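[step 3/7] inverse_fold.run input=structure_tokens len=151
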């Protein structure tokens, strides 16, 4: 949405509508809000859902590798893991080969939750209403943006 009479987007513009950061922020808030009722039914928050996605893909993973996958610091990840463990969805185990390393594993309840979560990506995809090509392009551009900004 452009402001009537506003100049076309220019480098260095201070118009809100010209800020990519605001478009990303608004999109992120809207998408996360759309997830909320779906995840409430699963008893998960959005960050907990992201943890579960990684564990459903790879049942045993170190806390360090999970943090890398989610681009989260240990201090942010620890409370998420404690809550998921308290809810009986995962367990933390010291690795025999390196007791400093903690492995995460799904419990049976955590594995069963995946079946209930199968409808979430479809519902979100429907809400986004992107063609497969638009979806692929959006992901590609966002990954490129992340790579460029974190260099």
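[step 3/7] decode complete -> sequence:
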């Amino acid at each position: 949405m452009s402001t009537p009479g506003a100049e076309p987007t220019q480098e260095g513009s201070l118009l809100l509508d010209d800020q990519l950061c605001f478009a990303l922020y608004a999109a992120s808030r809207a998408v996360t809000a759309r997830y909320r009722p779906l995840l409430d039914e699963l008893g998960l928050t959005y960050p907990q859902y992201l943890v579960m996605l990684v564990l459903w893909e790879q049942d045993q993973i170190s806390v360090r590798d999970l943090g890398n996958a989610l681009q989260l610091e240990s201090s942010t990840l620890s409370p998420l893991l404690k809550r998921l463990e308290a809810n009986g969805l995962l367990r933390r185990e010291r690795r025999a080969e390196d007791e400093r390393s903690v492995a995460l594993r799904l419990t049976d309840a955590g594995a069963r939750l995946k079946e209930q979560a199968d409808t979430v990506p479809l519902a979100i995809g429907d809400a986004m209403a992107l063609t497969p090509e638009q979806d692929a392009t959006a992901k590609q551009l966002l990954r490129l943006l992340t790579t460029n900004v974190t260099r």
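[step 4/7] annotate
Residues 20-42 form the longest helix (23 residues).
The mean pLDDT is 91.
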